[in-house]
Design a protein that fits this description.
Two copies of one chain form a homodimer. Chain A has 197 residues and is an all-alpha fold. Helices cover 77% and strands 0% of the residues of chain A. In chain A, helix 1 packs across helix 6 (102-116), helix 5 packs antiparallel against helix 9 (174-190) and helix 8 (150-170) runs antiparallel to helix 9 (174-190). Chain A binds a DNA duplex (30 and 30 nucleotides) through residues 3-5, 8-9, 12, 33-35, 43-47, 49-51, 54-55.
Chain lengths: 197, 197
Amino acid sequence: MATKRAQMMEETRAKLVRAAREAFATKGYAAASMDDITADAGLTRGALYHNFGGKKGLLQAVVDQIDAEMVARLIAAQERAPSPWEGLLAEGVTYIEMALEPEVQRIMLLDGPAVLGDPSQWPNQNACLLRTTQTIQALIDEGTVKPVDAEAAARLINGAALNAALWIAAADEPRAVLPKAVEAFRQLAAGLLQTER
Amino acid sequence: MATKRAQMMEETRAKLVRAAREAFATKGYAAASMDDITADAGLTRGALYHNFGGKKGLLQAVVDQIDAEMVARLIAAQERAPSPWEGLLAEGVTYIEMALEPEVQRIMLLDGPAVLGDPSQWPNQNACLLRTTQTIQALIDEGTVKPVDAEAAARLINGAALNAALWIAAADEPRAVLPKAVEAFRQLAAGLLQTER
DNA sequence: TCAATACGCATACGGTTCGTATGTGAAAAA
DNA sequence: TTTTTCACATACGAACCGTATGCGTATTGA
């Protein structure tokens, strides 16, 4: 039986994460006070410290939640593609598109790395990167991609997409810049393809 | 005549920037207190507010200084290369190497963007990226590189190099993965080259 | 069913940091 | 020399964070 206490605790955690996600996205991590967040969730800082250990722990929880959502969307985009190679490109493009959302930009691309450190160390980010690495390795095995180090290629691809995302998010006209970024991304990625045809 | 007051002021600004650069690099922006920084420079917060307007202004000054140094190194690396295209690759490798330095990583890649916003919108419009953009534009004009958007390409190239650097920095054996990263970087960048042969 | 315990969360307090408002002494102007 | 300017120091109040402690309800055991 799921104890009633556990249910309550899960509920308060959800409320705190929801309020924090909202506050971090709009004000940024540093400017968002724990008093405001907890009050917004109908609680106090006591609950926050008990459940997450502190402000950083709460950010970690928010990051994990968003990260999981992003990974799900990346997988969906890849599976929708007609070929593994197109799947890799679709993944990158999806990643770029997600950065149009202020929430992703602020929490995942700016405050997250600054407060929590290297994103590639985040649990779900590792899974995402690992999957990209495997995809590239498969493309290497089938001869579509040059025999480079799969992990290195995956990290560079991800990094390129990430910076394109940051660029778009900060641009005056995101919708106008998006196609440029996507085109440049496809060109860059093409560098991994076997040259002969 | 350069008034004595102006000389004094320039001196105190230099001392503050020096102390701040040290503190930001080691403790990070958020954890570095203004009292510590100013005391370390033999001053008080009064001088800081008078000269830089606040903590963010001081960070901006530090960022501008480091940015200028980075550009100088990028230019030097590019001029040392045998061809414009090799110059671009040399820039990327140099960028990777610079990102391995904790100071650059902490201030320019993590705290800077988080506190000041996207680098391309910094008042001093980060010359680093501008430099790469110009290099790529030149390569496009001479026909070496495909006619993509120069800024987009520069962003992606920088992003790839940046992530490569973060990967290397977090690796168990940095010196072992460095060549892998450089090789993958060269392959990716080759995607920008004209295909005909 | 009832007493005892566990524990999730609220409350209270001290310490640190930040921003502004005001004071001061030396350089510059008169 | 007197007056003004201004670079910087000092003083004060407010906000925020982390820990220690208290309270009330859910859970456990007899």
